[in-house]
């Protein structure tokens, strides 16, 4: 167990059906086997089965209920695009929140669900409030400080809503399809632009304080890196093709999962996803190795770039005072 990964938030992204939930579960198990504390946050409002793949009988109650429901159906949680301000009470401990909002697997992985829209009925809302919960919620007081794996909904929407600002490392799952390759490339470019200082769209915000806050979120974004994991690879020619295409964008995958009928069967039957000889231990090695890589990059940069002037803060995490 290495210190670098503790407290990190890893977002698992990818096109629909690429294998995000599969990678989340296998990586959670691989990290737990190495002694890490692991939280899985189910951020996919359309997801139904991840708790079963983690070997759990029941799904945790969605955090959206704890935070008072979404604004679109009369609740408290707003959409981060219309209202980028922080989610009130986002730092929560297991003791405070109560056991109905989480479940713990046999290997100690703590599982949360951000919110489900499928239970709300037609016309009841949208995914924005779920995204805000995913962006802001922090589980405090766990020792060792856990790694949080966030199983995102398919596509780019959560990135576009700015949720990526609170993710340290984005893992993109690439299945053998051009759409999945494009997603990896887009994610890499998006993060490069953010790190180069790109600001979010704020044309729809008429309150200057909100504009300032949206900009600050991006300026202080945690996102450091994008990494790629190949999934459903059915042979050497497919793997070589995917690697060649990614290399054109200077992307080197950190893990490869084969096409495996036992993975498909576990999802079909709602069984726990433990497949002998298939795991993501190598991905844990690669993630731990990022520690040294970052140090080398830091050492190569002029020291002045390590100091970012912080504006005076009111909110303990974000420096934001909500407009009255
Ligand atoms: N390595 C694999 N071998 C065989 N089948 C796989 C593999 N990975 C995923 N699958 C199949 O693809 C389906 C989708 O996988 P998974 O749910 O992990 O993808 P996802 O990206 O989370 O999908 P969604 O976009 O719906 O959230 C699974 O139900 C399973 O049948
Ligand atoms: Mg999924």
What would you say about this model in short?
The protein is α/β, with parallel strands linked by helices and 324 residues long. The chain has one domain (7-306): P-loop containing nucleotide triphosphate hydrolases (Rossmann fold), CATH 3.40.50. The chain is built from eleven helices and ten strands.
What is the chain-wise order of helices and strands?
Answer: EHEHHEHEEHEEHEHHEHEHH
Largest sheet: 8 strands, mixed
Q: How do the strands of the widest beta sheet line up side by side?
A: 4-5-2-7-1-8-9-10
Q: How much of the residues is beta strand, in percent?
A: 5-15%
Oligomerization category of the chains in this entry: single chain
Radius of gyration: 19 Å
- For this structure, what is the CATH homologous superfamily? P-loop containing nucleotide triphosphate hydrolases
Text of the CATH class: Alpha Beta
- CATH architectural name: 3-Layer(aba) Sandwich
Instruction: Give the overall form.
Output: globular
Terminal residue distance: 46 Å
Total domain modules: 1
Number of strand segments: 10
| Tally of DSSP helical segments | 11
CATH topology: Rossmann fold
What's the pLDDT, averaged over the residues?
A: 88
Bound molecules: adenosine-5'-triphosphate, magnesium ion
Indicate the structural class.
alpha/beta
Low-confidence stretches: 301-324
């Amino acid at each position: 167990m290495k210190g670098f990964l503790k407290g990190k938030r890893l977002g698992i992204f990818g096109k629909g059906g690429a294998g995000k939930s599969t990678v989340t579960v296998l990586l959670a198990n691989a990290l737990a086997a190495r002694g890490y504390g692991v939280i899985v946050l189910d951020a996919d409002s359309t997801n139904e089965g991840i708790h079963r793949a983690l070997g759990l009988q029941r799904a945790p109650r969605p955090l959206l209920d704890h935070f008072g429901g979404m604004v679109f159906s009369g609740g408290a949680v707003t959409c981060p695009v219309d209202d980028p301000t922080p989610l009130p009470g986002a730092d929560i401990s297991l003791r405070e929140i109560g056991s109905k909002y989480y479940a713990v697997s046999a290997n100690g992985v703590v599982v949360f669900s951000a919110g489900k829209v499928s239970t709300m009925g037609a016309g009841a809302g949208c995914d924005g409030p779920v995204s805000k919960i995913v962006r802001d919620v922090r589980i405090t007081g766990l020792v060792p400080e856990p790694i949080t794996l966030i199983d995102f909904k398919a596509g780019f929407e959560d990135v576009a809503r700015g949720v990526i600002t609170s993710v340290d490392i984005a893992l993109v799952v690439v299945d053998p399809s051009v759409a999945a390759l494009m997603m990896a490339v887009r994610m890499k470019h998006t993060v490069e632009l953010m790190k180069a200082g790109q600001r979010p769209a704020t044309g729809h915000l008429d309150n200057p304080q909100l504009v300032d806050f949206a900009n600050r979120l991006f300026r202080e974004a945690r996102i450091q890196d994008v990494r790629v994991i190949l999934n459903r690879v059915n042979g050497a020619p497919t793997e070589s093709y995917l690697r060649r295409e990614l290399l054109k964008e200077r992307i080197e995958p950190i893990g490869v999962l084969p096409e495996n009928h036992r993975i498909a069967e576990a999802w079909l039957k709602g069984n726990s996803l433990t497949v002998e000889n298939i795991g993501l231990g190598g991905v844990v090695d690669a993630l731990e190795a990022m520690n040294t890589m970052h140090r080398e990059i830091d050492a190569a940069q002029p020291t002045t770039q390590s100091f970012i002037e912080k504006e005076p803060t009111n909110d303990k995490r974000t420096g934001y005072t909500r407009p009255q």
